[in-house]
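Field reference: sequence -> structure
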Amino acid sequence: MKKTGLIFDVDGTLCDSTDVMKLAWNEILDKAPYKHVTMTREFISQYMGKPMDDWARAVLPGTPIELSYPIMEQCCEQEYVEIKRIGTQLYPGVYEAFKELSEKYHLYILSNCGGGYIELVMQCAGIEQYVDSHLCYGDTNLDKPENIKLLVKREELTECAYVGDTARDEESCKEAGVPFIYATYGFGEVKDAAYQINEMKELKDVAERLFADLH
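Structure field:
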């Protein structure tokens, strides 16, 4: 029996948490006893979607990873506190798209974020009832290609596509053997993407074209 899925990235695809992340992370980092960078939109945009190891090395340069990680965890915990307090900036049409797409596809969310973040974004967007399942780095300690493979196998998907916004997302899809849909409004830049959307409301038509092309 055919089971078709759409898998979504989070930051740069469903929401932009840059402002709340700056607020939360700078609060924690300014108390840290180690040299650190100051969170800016430009800095955050460079690292969105990358594994936590990359974040730790960039945010706390020169600090051993075993010392960086507890501080990174505090940063994430404070970010979650702020999201609960003030929310996150959702891109237009997320709720409407999930509601419509769920009538035809199984929907999933998969990101390189820490555990608990996806749940908060789903709550902010009001889309929990439309999402079949989700997976992240914080759940498995695996990078995005491995998590895509794991999700596809676990959910027994016969065909699927991943919606993301960075070149790393595209590379992850190639490694996992999954078609990629480029969200042009996000943080990254992907050249010559075969399938792309400029806003969420375009996804239904693009997904239909992609899956038709697979047959």
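Note: The two ends are 15 Å apart (CA to CA).
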